[in-house]
Amino acid sequence: MAVTVVVIFLLCFFSTGRGNNQAHHEESYSTTPTRGQPWPMPQKYSVTTKTYDIDSNNFQFTASGQTCDILTKAFARYKTIIFGSQDTKLRFYPNRFNRVEEGVTGLNVKVQKPCEEYPYLGMDESYELMVPDSSGQATLSSVSVWGALRGLETFSQLITGTPGSGYKINGTTISDSPRFQHRGLLFDTSRHFLGTDVLKKNLDAMAQSKFNVFHWHIVDDQSFPYVSQAFPQMSQMGAYDQLHLYSPNDVKEIIDYARDRGIRVIPEFDTPGHSQSWGKGITDLLTKCYSKGTPTGTFGPIDPTVDSTFQFLNEFFTEIKNVFPDKYVHLGGDEVSFSCWQSNPNITEFMKQQKFGTNYAKLEEYYMQKLIDIMNGLDKGYLIWQEVIDNGGKVKADTVVEVWKGGWQAEMGKVTGLGYQSVLSTCWYLNYISYGSNWNNYYLCEPYNFNGTEAQKKLVIGGEACMWGEYVDDTNVISRTWPRASVVAERLWSAQSVNDAKAAAPRLEEHRCRMVRRGFQAESINGPGYCTPEY
Ligand SMILES: *[C@@H]1O[C@H](CO)[C@@H](O)[C@H](O)[C@H]1NC(C)=O
Ligand SMILES: *[C@@H]1O[C@H](CO)[C@@H](O)[C@H](O)[C@H]1NC(C)=O
Ligand SMILES: *[C@@H]1O[C@H](CO)[C@@H](O)[C@H](O)[C@H]1NC(C)=O
Asked: Which residue range or ranges hold the Glycoside hydrolase family 20 catalytic domain (predicted)?
């Protein structure tokens, strides 16, 4: 023990002595949390200083418009979120009094259109909230059930509870809708497996920040946990082991859980690179690497020169189309290493036949084009990483290009200049961590901040926060992701003018405390402070 202390002391001594970029104490924003303010900030939000009691024993959610299982389940869920339950002991402050003359007695939810089966790109998420309405209740109106879900979340955030004096809500009028249609969060379940309980917990956290896309980077080089019904050998051979798997039933549970919260599930099956784990179950899929004319026993990207590759992909993606109801799947296409392709004599021969010269980007493009043709045949939409466009790929008009590399302003200009929709993730890699309060970098990254016409800006449909899985598993993925992902959520939901990090900090602090009260291990991000039990 004593030795450890001395070592730490010396490290501190030397590091403070060597430069001025180390400090024991970091500057941080004011951390006094707000009370009863929403995150992300609604488009129009006005609040009065008149407060109303809420009687937790008699409060009712009622549907006076269209309804369905999504809404009924949401009512039950938000009752527990707001008032807690004796089982979870999350909150549960008994009312001090039962008077209703100054109270809001219920929330009347009016959904105009019949519920849709699954959330989708471009769904209507707008809603209006009035507290109280003329009848002494609160009213939430929306076009679609998805808007009602967003409004219920906002409503839950306006209510504060204080031990001893019960629940209160201020007079409030809100008119709200998202700035961007695609507000995603990427989790990587290949570098480390994440249990379905953690994935569900994360979907709850996403709903609290109004994210609407779970980008499920489900497989990669390291492991293939997805259990394919057509090719069960892929997870039998390619998963870490037979305990770290997503069965068809697990996948369905995640999709259903997400749907109930208005969240789309877009799986990513990344090829032709990042596919080492695929090759274990499907022999002859990957390129054999050579050294001085002999095989090394190692493998490279998928082999684009043989028909069997595309027969397999057709069958595999037919399954994926049927398992995942969303119109879109992510096809990857990033970071393809050419060295193995360069070493293989058959590939060299193929390059000659196709007149590709030594331009292996053309081979990659050849592969992606054939995969895209398969997807077009299946009538499934797709997202791709930016490399596919950088290599000159011709994709369908409704393709979504995900920009992730440095120099994103130029890339967004290029991608939208070609007429493609784009989502930005470059500035929201949450897996890069550093000491101190650095969330304002995520907050200030503005997707429209590139040179382009109005028409080009319209093609920016949103962005994604990414949590790559090298250093996170079930033990820390929630705390490392939250509440930093919420910062991205506000950028993508709220008006462009809501961009003052200092002004946002107290509201973010409340949002984080609210997450903690709801049972998320959301880490501290504003420096010293504490959460009272009141959020
Ligand atoms: C609600 O009203 C009280 C005064 O009754 C005020 O102090 C508080 O700031 C208001 N809350 C919000 C969220 O504006
Ligand atoms: C090259 O192609 C031939 C004929 O299809 C095949 O027998 C051989 O295994 C291939 N070699 C490599 C290195 O893939
Ligand atoms: C936009 O173009 C102007 C003029 O060429 C340039 O000064 C500026 O840096 C560009 N902005 C971005 C974000 O690329």
From this structure: 180-495
Are residues 172 and 192 both part of a single domain? no
Looking at the CA of residue 36, tell me the nearest atom of ligand 1: 13
Per-residue pLDDT tens over the stretch 317-351 = 999 999 999 999 999 999 999 999 999 999 999 99
408 assigned to some structural domain: yes
Q: Among 148, 176, 204, identify where a domain stops.
A: 176
- Closest protein CA for atom 2 of ligand 1: 49
DSSP 226: B
344: tokens are 């293989």
The torsion angles phi and psi of 190, rounded to 5 degrees, stand at -105, -45
pLDDT tens digit string along 248-281? 999 999 999 999 999 999 999 999 999 999 999 9
* Pocket flag, ligand 3, residue 450 (CB < 6 Å): yes
132 Cα to the center of ligand 1, angstroms:
15
Number of structural domains (the chain) is: 2
User: Global pTM?
Assistant: 0.93
What DSSP string runs through 94-128?
A: --S----TTB--EEEEEE-SPPPSS--TT----EE
What pLDDT, in 10s, does the model give residues 191-217? 999 999 999 999 999 999 999 999 999
- What residue's CA is closest to ligand 2, atom 1? 346
* For the CA of 293, the nearest ligand: 2
